[in-house]
Design a protein that fits this description.
Length: 270
């Protein structure tokens, strides 16, 4: 049996691919487990500066495996909840990862596949990619944070329409809504995302983690709470070797070498 998640490195970028093209990369508990473990490993690896998530066979992810989901009818509610928590654990792993996570979407991202794409920090999509909150078409309601993520970009009315109809939305439309960061020609989303990931992977690891935390809380915090969070993060940053290297490089008119600091920090933590 082939691996459900295939991993390979592109310099400091860890590329993770859904790998079941026969089912359009449908999700299973094995996928949740393997992908969560891959994120944990990448988070610990000092040579990884960014993570890129994509799908094999020209499709990102078609969502949950309906054959398996149909079997949950015979389960008790706690058993069903346990199955859902496999997906939600993965969503939290993506959200809590201190390193930048980029989704590269070709083909379709539907159902929980859409949720996973939206959980990533940045999203690159082919112009003709298809995004769909497809649950209603099979009598289900959304999970994986789909409604939470989409509500950050669209009005309640648009969110409700997307969820009640399950109507596919193109990459171009998602870009216009602000959901997609960059559009790519069909077939080149991965290449475009790699370029972005390489740039981010060379940045200051701890500062990036702080920035991710600030961005995550900005929409929910009051101004005073966000100012306090910014102050605490800046205090830590000002005392960090990353800032010393960055400022020294600026005045020395050279490129900062944050990768060396990342490796040194990993050695000290062992």
């Amino acid at each position: 049996m082939s691996e459900v998640i295939v991993a390979h490195r592109d310099g400091a970028v860890q590329v993770l691919s859904f790998n079941n093209p026969a089912t359009r990369n449908a999700l299973t508990p094995e996928v949740y487990s393997a992908l969560s473990a891959a994120f944990e490993q990448a988070q610990r690896d000092p040579d990884v500066g960014a993570i890129l998530l994509t799908g094999a066979g020209g499709v990102f992810c078609s969502g949950g495996d309906l054959r398996r989901l149909a079997q949950r009818r015979a389960m008790t509610p706690p058993e069903r909840r346990a199955g859902i928590e496999g997906l939600h654990g993965l969503i939290r792993a993506i959200r809590d990862c201190g390193k930048p996570v980029i989704a590269a979407v070709e083909g379709s991202a539907a159902g929980a596949g859409l949720s996973i794409a939206l959980a990533c920090d940045l999203l690159v999509a082919a112009r003709n990619a298809s995004f769909s909150v497809a649950y209603v078409k099979v009598g289900l309601s959304p999970d994986g944070g789909a409604t939470a993520f989409l509500s950050e970009f669209v009005s309640r009315q648009v969110l409700t329409e997307l969820c009640l109809t399950g109507k596919p939305v193109t990459g171009e439309r998602m870009h216009a809504l602000g959901v997609v960061n960059r559009l790519a020609a069909p077939g080149s989303a991965l290449a475009e995302a790699i370029v972005m990931a390489r740039t981010l992977a060379s940045g200051p690891e701890r500062a990036i983690a702080r920035i991710k935390s600030l961005c995550r809380h900005a929409g929910e915090n009051t101004l005073d709470a966000q100012l306090d969070l910014e102050a605490r993060n800046m205090v830590d940053s000002l005392g960090d070797d990353e800032a010393a290297e960055g400022i020294e490089a600026f005045f020395g008119k050279r490129s900062a070498d944050f990768s060396a600091l990342r490796r040194a920090s990993a050695v000290l933590s062992q």
